[in-house]
Structure formats: structure tokens, C-alpha cells
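ARCHIVE CARD
Drawer: 12
Card no.: 0347
Subject: one protein chain, sequence and derived structure
Cross-reference: see card 0346
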Amino acid sequence: RILQKTEANVSNFGEVIFTVPDLMTEPIMASLEFAKYFFDKKKAVFIDAREPEEFELDHIAGAINIPFDYYDEYMDVIDTLKYDDVFIIYCSGGECSLSLDLADVFFTDKAFENVFVFEGGLPAWQDAGYPTE
């Protein structure tokens, strides 16, 4: 399936602004720039869909770990999330599909509305030198 991509606008001051569509019909692919914009503005919940062991080694600063393969064991965490928050789900990028799979669960099964998949994943974030922990 082909997911939509995020779009940027430019303010009167030349600042790039990313917005969330009013009505999303599926999870949307998020670029590195989109992810960093929402990270800097503290307007998104970053979710790492990888295994806990991988998450412990390195992850986007402030991200929470909800491994796709065990997401049903993380219902207590999922239940604390707000439906109107922006969720940016990522994994290892490239051939990794865990973020796509978890995004589908969030959007379809859990009915969260603002679900994005950061397609570059942790490798793109690290390559850009952005904060990890």
C-alpha cells in the first residue's frame, strides 16, 4: 500500500511549518524533517516499534517503546495515550516494517487519528545527529 506523505508550508517569516491533516484516512509517511519539527515543538509522541533490547541500546530521545510483536502486552501504556495526540511511530528504517504494522494497529484497531510512520527510522535520525538516549 502507498501511504500519503507529509507536506510542509512556509510561514510569512520563511519558517517551514508542518501540519497534521484535518481528516486522516490512514497513517501517513513522515519525513525526517517532519519528525524533527514535531520533536522540537514537543507536539508528538514518538513510539519505537522495535524489540525492547534494541530500544535499550539506543532510541529517539523521549520515545516510548511499544514493540509491535508484543503490543498487546503494552495495553496499559497504550491506554494512557490521548486520542488527539500526534503519534510518530518508527523502527529501524529500510526493510523494517514494524512501524507500519504498529501504525496500522494504532489507526485501525485503536482508532487513534493522528498516526504517522517515520520512514527513515532510527538510522536516519542518528545519521542526522539528532538526540537519542
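Annotation on reverse: The mean pLDDT is 90. DSSP finds five helices and seven strands in the chain.
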